[in-house]
Amino acid sequence: MEQVNWVGVDTHKDTIACYLGTKFKEFKTTQKGFEKALEWAGSANWAIEGAYCFGKPFAKFLSNQGCKVFEVNPFITKSWRAALSANGSKNDYGDAKVISIFSKNLNLEPVSFATIELKEKLTARNLLVKERTELINSIKMLHYTRGNALPFKSLTTKKAQSCLKNSDDVILKNYAYLTIQLTNSIKEIEAEIKKNLPEKALKLTKLTGIGELTAAAIYAETRGKLISKAAFASYCAVAPIENSSGKSTRHKVNKRGNRVLSSLFFGISMHQARFDEKGKAYFEKKLKEGKTKRHAKKCLARQLANIVFKILEG
């Protein structure tokens, strides 16, 4: 494949920056702008950084036009730019250029619109869960400030919601109605996520501590980012970073990776340290080595990242 056949695209909310061969041009993120970009580039492969974010509309437009569209991991764009020293500091021109030059040498994954839909559903579910939590906390606070005891330990059960819905208090009654609506919406979205779970995500559910929703989140967040085992662990923020000085060699927590994945892997490691035979044995082994419980769980999370990588790569 010739280098000029690859268009490197750096996406933003209002513009898309395109580089092809020796040409660079920016277009607006409108239907007309997309048409101009396609006319400008002609027949080519499109490598897009942010195809699952701001680049979604453009990726869908290109796909509908019969073009081959690939996702580029933003983390490797940075290393490409450093290797090429393209225009010095970070800018749209430099990013688009390195994407165009290096993409042909990588086995990039085509953009998956099924993954985009899955990610949208997960985002919507998280938003609804957050809103429901805020409502439940408001109901609790209302009881506390009035000096009343909570009628139920859990306010998400049907019995608790039915009781609040039939309350004479207009605030509690409306809070209950909204909570019920949110609960029903969350269940509907979760059913859709579980029904259309990809095969590789289903394989993840065989691991202790990974349910269908957690598997869906891991799959959606890592799609197109399986570069290597070490890079994957770094992206999941479970690989420690060296922080040495002189003869002292230390490591610190990686805060540059995906915070969603970091939280998920740490939660899974906590579960496995208690309920999984192999996970518990590894956790106790690290404790015997003198590591703290938190450090031992981080070590377990790192091992889990290797296992998940192998499953997703296969």
Structure report:
With 314 residues, the chain is α/β, with parallel strands linked by helices. The protein has a 5-stranded mixed sheet. A two-stranded antiparallel sheet has the order 6-7. It has helices spanning 31-41, 56-64, 74-84, 92-102, 113-146, 158-165, 170-195, 199-204, 212-222, 229-235, 259-275, 277-288, 293-313; strands at 6-11, 15-20, 23-28, 45-49, 68-72, 241-242, 251-252. Helix 11 packs across helix 12 and helix 12 (277-288) packs across helix 13. A hairpin with an 8-residue loop joins strand 6 and strand 7 (251-252). The mean pLDDT is 87. The protein is globular and about 70 Å long. The chain has 13 helices and 7 strands. The chain has 3 domains: 3-111, Ribonuclease H-like superfamily/Ribonuclease H (Nucleotidyltransferase, domain 5, 2-Layer Sandwich), CATH 3.30.420; 114-196; 200-309, no CATH class.
